[in-house]
Specification:
2% of the residues lie in helices and 55% in strands.
Length: 251
């Protein structure tokens, strides 16, 4: 039977996970809506070392994860509490939790293979630049042919077709006939819902042919079908249990 390589319990629900494929670090954005408090955590995917947890910035609520690149976590602020627009960047050391630089004028556009692509919010129309993650300075103009899309090595599950469901890819009959599945290293990973009384439960199974070699109950007493519950990063299977416990298995 498989066992988790990492099992870490956060104190509040995780709203977002971000993986830095270059440093093999997973970052978490943890929010407590009742107190309007957000904090951040960083854990090594290689050995499970917790670099930091419950890290807070000066902005208590209106901030969140933007991206992660080469050992640097980028956070953003919001223009206002009422809108989703992002403004400003804060760079955090991925192993230290220390602020490396901050800029309240730049905003993040997307992540390229050469680093984050940013723009000056004061300039219209928008002009894109490649940023230096170590200093926050704009290095040069963004060149689409050179600054190609970054490969995050993330793979999300698919929704099983009716034909696959007939072939019994899942060990139990799902509620709603929705099964998220993925095949990796000759193993089948499936996530599905069952109905227990009047409440839904969400399950995760890892199967070697027809044998269940790992299973977990992800969520209980939920009222509607949840989205896909896991992802693969290289050989790491990553998921959340009860929205607040991070688990990683090496497949």
């Amino acid at each position: 039977m498989l066992r988790p390589h990492i099992s870490y319990q956060f104190k509040s629900p995780v709203w977002r996970l971000e993986i830095d494929a270059l440093s093999e670090t997973i970052f978490a954005e943890i929010r407590e809506p009742a107190d309007k408090k957000v904090c951040f955590a960083a854990i090594s995917l290689d050995n499970g070392t917790v670099y930091f947890d419950e890290l807070q910035t000066e902005e208590r609520w209106l901030t969140g994860i933007e991206a992660a690149y080469d050992g640097i976590l980028l956070l953003h602020n919001y223009e206002s509490e009422a809108g989703p627009a992002h403004k400003g960047l804060i760079a955090i050391g991925g192993t230290t939790g220390e602020i490396i630089w901050r800029n309240y004028i730049y905003a993040f556009d997307h992540l390229s293979a050469n680093g984050p692509v940013i723009y000056d919010t004061r300039i219209q129309p928008r002009k894109l630049f490649l940023a230096d993650t170590g200093t926050g300075e704009a290095k040069r103009r963004y060149e689409p042919s050179v600054d190609i899309e970054f490969d995050s090595h993330l793979v999300l599950p698919e929704i099983a077709s009716p034909e696959l469901l007939k072939s019994r890819i899942a060990p139990v009959n799902p509620f709603g006939n929705t099964v998220h599945y993925l095949e990796h290293n000759k193993l089948r990973i499936v996530s599905l819902h069952t109905l227990e009384g009047e409440a839904l439960q969400q399950h995760l199974y890892i199967m070697d042919n027809t044998e269940i070699i790992y299973e977990d109950l992800l969520n209980t007493d939920i009222q509607k079908l949840q989205p896909e519950s896991f992802l693969m990063h290289k050989d790491h299977l990553i998921y959340l249990k009860d929205k607040s416990q991070l688990k990683v298995l090496n497949l």
